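*Target chain*
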Amino acid sequence: MQKRAFITGVSGQDGSYLAELLLSKGYEVHGLLRRSSSPQHSTWRLEGILQDRFKLRYGDVTDSPSLLRHLEEVQPDEVYHLAAQSDVGVSFRVAEHTANVTGLGTLRMLEALRAVCPGAKFYQASSSEMFGVSSPPQNENTPFHPRSPYACAKAYAHHTTVNYREAYGMFTTSGILFNHESPRRGENFVTRKITRAVAAIQAGLQEYLYLGNLDARRDWGFAGDYAEAMWMMLQSSEPEDFVIGTGEAHSVRDFCELAFTEAGLDWQNYVRHDPAHDRPSDVDYLVADPSKAQQKLGWKPQMSFGELVAEMVRSDRERLRRFLENESHKK
């Protein structure tokens, strides 16, 4: 029998890769999408997968009635909760909004699930940011020490997911995902800021790239690989939480060096530190210990850090080339 999946945050980087994966496995996929004044902008990542087995539904994780209605109509076998205000820097400026969407949004999802389809399997998108300044490498037993409103909201959502598993016997699992990137990454994230700047600088449209802490180290993987891990977690016989990462850490400086080198440029000529981009409290070093996922799920990342950076740079250079061509044709 064909399985049905329900994805919140379907128009984001992770949601689009996950929807593609599930469709390739024969699922009927329902994606929750917020109403937008520019719908084409909000669904550009989904353009290649709009088909009969993929259905968009409008709603919001801050609106419990819409969640209840959609879940009751769909009766999904699997629910992937990816929706969040996910920009760490922005969370300092919109802390209450972040808590409402990223934290309480998970509670609303779980309550709706418990009310209308408690037998569905539930995946919560937890974050390595919850670990904060805990000693690396971080695994499932590492204490949380969140250092941003975003991380605090994610920690609340994570513990709520565990609570519903223990209190109500529901199949709820959390993937504690370390940083994962792709050409579909939002332009407000540092990796896309870098790769877009490389393309613009090479084209002579930008002089410098201004960044915050260049020494911050992160465990960066490919978002498509991490979507596979999400699916694998819900295929387990018992619900558990898993750390997902590559086990390797690289600095923002490392990312810059590889990205500019891909375009034949020396990053030191173009990258400048700007204190305005520093966060009130930052996390210097996050790196995963993904051994549990490797042993129990058989999951391993397929794309290396160098391949990921190169692919993102190539994509942004091509995007800019097409944009400039279109602009020249308009003249």
Notes: The chain has a mean pLDDT of 94. Residues 305-330 form the longest helix (26 residues).
